[in-house]
From TrEMBL:
GO terms for molecular function: amidase activity. Residues 24-464 form the Amidase domain. Its EC number is 3.5.1.4. It comes from Amycolatopsis magusensis. This is Amidase. It comes from the Bacteria. InterPro entries: Amidase_CS, Amidase_dom, AS_sf, FAAH2. Keywords: Hydrolase. It is an enzyme of class 3 (hydrolase). PANTHER family: FATTY-ACID AMIDE HYDROLASE, FATTY-ACID AMIDE HYDROLASE 2. SUPFAM superfamilies: Amidase signature (AS) enzymes (SSF75304). The keyword Transferase does not apply.
Length: 483
């Protein structure tokens, strides 16, 4: 029997029943990687010897009667996490030889839960792209179509899951980096509420692994089923033991409802700043129809929804100004000239991004204050609704585009070109206010590519969109392996 495409929940049940061992699961996963990954290029840093040793220890622990949450389950880890003894480069050539001495806090939690780490998955340069390619490890392809991207920046993790390279993966998200690859590769992902899961050790190799509170960025789970997302989130959730964890413990509230018919859902498929492609719109409508058929209350409009144009603008301002603080530019004088040449009436997202590159601390504080107004607006909306269903990006996976200046790239939406980074507005809808969002498969495009949607939930009520994801999986199906 082949186990590599089973869910983690199924693997755990099989190991408990004595139907398979962790060593057998690990050997099968490694054989699959060695057979198929030359084309996919998802696993950029294999760690097979230590994985086999960990699997052997897991089997011994089970024989002694231990039963930890992920005992013996083969998993992968995004390259951007520190793992002692393995390189952490973020795809940046100057750091190709950096090897941390300590595990990231989430790697520590994975291992404590009994998981078997197969290796690390590929990322884009500095984690700053919607694709996953770099000069150290090359390009990760989409398992459904080698000529298309698997997404970014967690594209290696999504491609690994779709290909059967481990049952789970831990990754991160600041611009849809969990959700977009899941959408492109037909798997599941969950962007937790901002601050729910500790991030220490998920840090660029040029920076120390301090227990800092990040803005916008989160770490989270990826899987091949909705229930597996909850299984892994329960391992990941919790503050850093060096800071808030000294005094705080996590007690996430239960999902608001258990039955599909009890959910109140707002469905969005139009954005004022970018069109939604027909394939993605069809996926959103498929989910909306399933919700209605299941008895849920489904609305298409609400006056409580925060302004989407301002939300996208604030998101770009916070994202870009934060990015430039971490990765400074060399040509600031040229940038100042370009910004000065912008028309005062230019409110395009391209102009927003350029201006944000020169943000002062006062500018950031003003944007952050507006963010609080949006958070309050979302609290009001979630008093009337339990979840929001909307796109993750406007299209399915697009062809590889490695042109050197991302600002000059374009995304084709039903035959019309749009600025490449404008496609981030849907991901930013949850990221800017720090809301949880679960990416779920929602069918296939006419070309046979996966299409996903995101379920946005109330802050720190992560179990609500996760439960809705489980119910939708039962209603419309979930992961399908690439042909």
């Amino acid at each position: 029997m082949e186990w590599s495409l089973r869910t983690a929940e199924e693997l755990i049940a099989a190991m408990r029943a004595g139907a398979v061992t962790s060593v057998e699961l690990t050997d099968e996963a490694i054989a699959r990687i060695e057979r198929d990954d030359e084309v996919i290029n998802a696993i950029c840093v294999p760690d097979f010897d230590r994985a086999r040793a960990a699997a052997h220890r897991a089997d011994q622990a089970r024989a002694r009667g231990e039963d930890r949450p992920l005992l013996g389950v083969p998993v992968t880890v995004k390259e951007s996490y520190d793992i002692a003894g393995l390189p952490t480069t973020w795809g940046m050539p100057p750091h190709r030889d950096y090897v941390p001495a300590e595990d990231a806090v989430q790697v520590t939690r994975l291992k404590a839960a009994g998981a078997v780490v197969l290796g690390k998955t590929n990322v884009p340069l500095g984690l700053q792209d919607i694709q996953s390619f770099n000069d150290i490890y090359g390009t990760t392809t989409n398992p459904w179509d080698r000529d298309r991207t698997s997404g970014g920046s967690s594209g290696g993790s999504a491609a690994a899951l779709a290909s059967g390279f481990g049952a789970l993966s831990i990754a991160s998200d600041i611009a849809g980096s969990l959700r977009t690859p899941a959408h492109f590769c037909g798997v599941y992902a969950h962007k937790p509420t901002l601050g729910l899961a500790a991030t220490r050790g998920m840090v660029a190799p040029s920076e120390p692994a301090f227990p800092t509170e990040l803005d916008l960025a989160v770490v989270g789970p990826m899987a091949r089923s909705a229930r597996d997302l909850t299984l892994l989130l329960d391992v990941m959730a919790g503050p850093d033991p060096l800071t808030l964890g000294v005094a705080h413990q996590v007690a996430l509230p239960p999902a608001r409802h258990e039955r599909l018919g009890d959910f109140r859902v707002l469905v969005l498929d139009d954005h004022p700043l970018i069109p939604t492609g027909s394939a993605v719109r069809a996926g959103v409508n498929r989910v909306a129809a399933a919700l209605s058929d299941g008895g849920a209350r489904v609305e298409r409009h609400s006056p409580l929804l925060p302004d989407l144009t301002e939300a996208a603008t604030l998101y770009m301002q916070l994202l870009i100004s934060g990015s430039i603080a971490r990765f400074p530019m060399d040509s600031l004088e040229q940038l100042r000239i370009r910004v000065a040449e912008l028309s005062a009436d230019d409110r395009s997202l391209d102009a927003v991004r350029l201006r944000a590159l020169l943000f002062s601390h006062r500018d950031w504080m003003e944007a952050n204050n507006r963010r609080e107004h949006h958070r309050h607006g979302w609290r009001r909306l979630f008093a009337e609704f339990d979840a929001v269903v909307c796109p993750i990006t406007p299209t399915p996976a697009f062809p590889h585009d490695h042109s050197p200046d991302p600002m000059e790239r374009r995304i084709d939406i039903d035959g019309i070109e749009h600025p490449y980074f404008d496609q981030l507005v849907w991901a930013g809808l949850a990221t800017m206010p720090g809301l949880p969002a679960t990416a779920v498969p929602a069918g296939r495009s006419p070309e046979g590519l996966p299409v996903g949607v995101q379920l946005i939930g109330p802050m720190f009520e992560d179990r609500t969109p996760l439960r809705l994801a489980e119910l939708l999986e039962q209603k419309i199906g979930g992961f399908e392996a690439p042909a």
